[in-house]
Amino acid sequence: MTAKGARVLIIDDETPIRRLLKVALKAHGYEVAEAVSGLQGVQQAALLHPDLVILDLGLPDMDGLEVVKRLREWSRVPIIILSVREQEDDKIKALDAGADDYVTKPFGMGELLARMRAALRHAAQNGDEPVLTVGGLTVDLARRLVTVDGREIKLTPTEYELLKNLALNAGRVLTHRQLLRTIWGPGYQEETHYLRVYIGQLRRKIEPDPTRPRYIITEPGVGYRLVGGE
């Protein structure tokens, strides 16, 4: 699914924000629907089956986290949180509840549009894409082969699993807990030092300059993101 014709549902009780988003998104080829409360948003999502949801956490009738949980009971639609809440804990809760990304108000429209494109690309993947490419980085899932600018990179099994999960979710932030649960299991969800060690090892192997990462970006206090290709 590309921007052209993609249907976006905006769930936000602030009229100026909805108006701003509606004008900007329509100018970029999106179809736009609106809801001013959590309940209306859930109802609109069920009725319209949007391709992407932009959701404010501070709604008049229910917390945005509850909206995420209700939508995730039956839908895998990409959800981007748009909120004034800047605390890391709010971001982590939203992402762990099933949101795909988080943008803090005030926001740059260019950044939001880039996050939307990444979420739509991820949703369009059929799940068995054998080769994932981000810039000069290529992950061949069928052959378990990783190359950077055509040069094969030798990874340990754990390094490979970590990179594979980041690549499968390119452009999206994955929380520490999500990565630890996936790679090491539920009993390791608090062992963030494991991630720091392995992310450091991966960066030394795949980044041109590990001190200024091009591929694996740190979301401070939240998790990591593999940059999405355009």
Walk me through what this model shows.
This protein is of the alpha/beta class and 230 residues long. It has 2 domains: 7-124, Response regulator (Rossmann fold, 3-Layer(aba) Sandwich), CATH 3.40.50.2300; 131-226, Orthogonal Bundle (Arc Repressor Mutant, subunit A), CATH 1.10.10.10. It contains 8 helices and 12 strands. It has helices at 15-27, 38-48, 64-72, 88-97, 109-124, 157-168, 176-183, 192-206; strands spanning 7-11, 31-35, 52-55, 79-83, 101-104, 131-134, 137-140, 145-148, 151-153, 173-175, 216-219, 223-226. The strands form 3 sheets. The protein has a 5-stranded parallel β-sheet, sandwiched between helices. β11 (216-219) and β12 (223-226) form a beta hairpin. α6 (157-168) crosses α8 (192-206). The protein is globular, with a radius of gyration of 18 Å. The protein starts with 6 loop residues before the first strand and ends with a strand. 33% of the residues are buried. The mean pLDDT is 88.
